[in-house]
């Protein structure tokens, strides 16, 4: 019985510590982030004419997780499943095709990571 209560206390402590870590997550940026083609050069994943935009996280549906968004000229493009579920425009609509891999879009991973960070 003594060992059981020790393991119980230790398990409870671990659970509490893990819970505290997740509660304290905050956005590194804390505000919407403007990104430009000039900043990313050849790694810019969007078609000609989409030279800048704003990365943000919104919660228009009231769901637990926010919607990661790339906004350009007033149009909100989905960068995660929550934004897709909320009916935002697919990001693929403005992504440029990768010249090295026909039929594959250029990666927006770096911008996605920044947008997702806004949600925490």
Record keyword descriptors for this entry.
5-stranded mixed β-sheet, 33% helix, alpha+beta
Return Rg in Å: 20 Å
SSE string, helix = H, strand = E? HEHEEEHEH
Question: Could you state the oligomeric state of the chains shown?
Answer: single chain
How many domains? The number is: 1
CA-CA gap between termini: 41 Å
Gross morphology is globular
Report strand %.
15-25%
Describe the structure.
The chain has helices at 2-23, 37-40, 81-85, 109-117, and strands at 33-36, 52-58, 67-72, 75-78, 89-90. With 120 residues, it is an alpha+beta fold. It has one domain. Strands 1-2-3-4-5 form a five-stranded mixed sheet. Strand 2 (52-58) and strand 3 (67-72) form a beta hairpin. The radius of gyration is 20 Å and the shape is globular. The relative contact order is 0.17. The model is unreliable at 3-29 (pLDDT under 50).
List the helices and strands and how they pair.
Layout: H1 2-23, E1 33-36, H2 37-40, E2 52-58, E3 67-72, E4 75-78, H3 81-85, E5 89-90, H4 109-117
Parallel strand pairs: 4-5
Antiparallel strand pairs: 1-2, 2-3, 3-4
């Amino acid at each position: 019985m003594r060992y059981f209560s020790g393991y119980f206390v230790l398990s409870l402590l671990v659970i509490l510590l893990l819970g505290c870590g997740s509660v304290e997550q905050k956005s590194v940026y804390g505000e919407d982030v403007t990104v430009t083609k000039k900043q990313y050069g050849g790694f810019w994943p969007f078609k000609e004419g989409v030279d800048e935009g704003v990365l943000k996280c919104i919660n228009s549906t009231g769901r637990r997780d926010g919607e990661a968004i790339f906004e350009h000229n007033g149009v909100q493009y989905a960068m995660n499943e929550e934004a897709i579920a909320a009916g935002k425009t697919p990001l693929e609509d403005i992504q440029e095709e990768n010249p090295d891999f026909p039929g594959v879009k250029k990666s927006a991973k770096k911008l996605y990571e920044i947008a997702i960070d806004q949600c925490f």
